[in-house]
Amino acid sequence: MAEAPGGTATAARRVVVVGIGMGPQHVTVEAAAAIGSVDVVLAFVKSADDPLLAVRREICDLHGVELVVLDDPPRARHDDVDYDAAVDAWHAARAEAWEAALATHPGDVGLLVWGDPSLYDSTLRLLDRLQERLPLAVEVVPGISSLQLLAARHRLVLHDVGAPLHVTTARRFAEALAQGQRNVVVVLNRRLDALADPALADWSIWWGANLGAPGEQLVAGRVGEVLADIEAARERARAHDGWVLDLHLLRAPAGDAP
What we know:
Strand 10 and strand 11 form a beta hairpin. The radius of gyration is 20 Å and the shape is globular. By secondary structure, the chain is an alpha/beta fold. A five-stranded parallel β-sheet has the order 5-4-6-3-7, sandwiched between helices. A five-stranded mixed β-sheet has the order 8-9-12-10-11, sandwiched between helices.
């Protein structure tokens, strides 16, 4: 309980963060129970025909929960914009939108997160920010991550025996190579330019896009031999689903040293 202005106690709002993988087929029994336990689900929408919102709506309909749609605040994405500052401003605006929605929608609230909430998702960080202003009781239910799907689709273990796995974003991929990383999963790709580096031509790649979605695409092989195939598959995924979310595992040839 927290003290409201005037000294009265304010009960913490229950907020349930649920990992949903890539859609209804990945909603676990635990996740289904969590979704069914809330009064409303809040979801940001990026456009009038947002295909990702349609998946959230399908999940809510399956579990009989109202979906409350919020306009997603704009985020500066130009190359010359300070990335950290732009993300911080976007997070602040999203937290304010959630605060306003909580004020108008009483009861328990659900937030559906693509993949798993622990991996390259900001929902929990935003709730930490919001908890500075509101008493919240946050629960988290894990989901199936894109890393798990990538490994399953390619029938592989993400690391060699006793070896590390480095997970990073496309923005920091060059930094990972400079550090000597030789077994790297790269997520959040806007472009695949970095793979055109001749130094990576003999590396092995296991790539996937829109894993679990109707437009799922998979490519594997030596980077120098399959890069054009990956680019074409990426566009097929975008054309089919209306969006593209891809990741890949890169592994240096045996005996390669930084």
